[in-house]
Write a structure and sequence with these properties.
globular, 3 helices, alpha/beta, 5 strands
Length: 121
């Protein structure tokens, strides 16, 4: 019996989301940090330097994912961690399993949230 590759995960949202074309506007780390849903009406989360607008999703302002708001949370997402100390942009040193998880989070976000820019500096 032949082995089969695992079926790709379905990252499509339950309800269709109309997204704007992705932007590559430069967003400083300082500007990103202000977009935490508290200091600003905007809530941003970055993954591998790509900034997603998660405004309106309370999970990122008052819920379990609030530690990601206003940050590049690549490491925490890759590690499936909600510890504030893990919400950093350093992910390159992680293992292949964590990098795959991070890639899956990138796909998940890209199907649900507008890309508003890239972290610079």
């Amino acid at each position: 019996m032949a082995e089969h590759a695992p079926e790709p995960k379905n990252f499509a949202p339950k309800e269709p989301v109309k997204l704007d074309p992705p932007k590559d506007d430069p967003i400083s780390k300082e500007e990103l940090s202000k977009c935490d849903g508290k200091e600003s009406s905007r809530t941003y989360v970055a993954i591998k330097g790509t900034v997603f607008d998660v405004t309106g999703n309370e999970s990122y302002t008052t819920g379990p994912y609030k530690v990601f708001a206003g940050k590049d949370a690549s490491r925490a997402l890759a590690m499936s961690s909600v510890k504030p100390e893990d919400a950093t942009s350093e992910w390159e040193d992680l293992g292949d399993k964590e990098k795959k998880v991070l890639d899956e989070w990138t796909i998940f976000f890209s199907k649900r949230y507008n890309v508003v820019g890239k972290v610079v500096g």
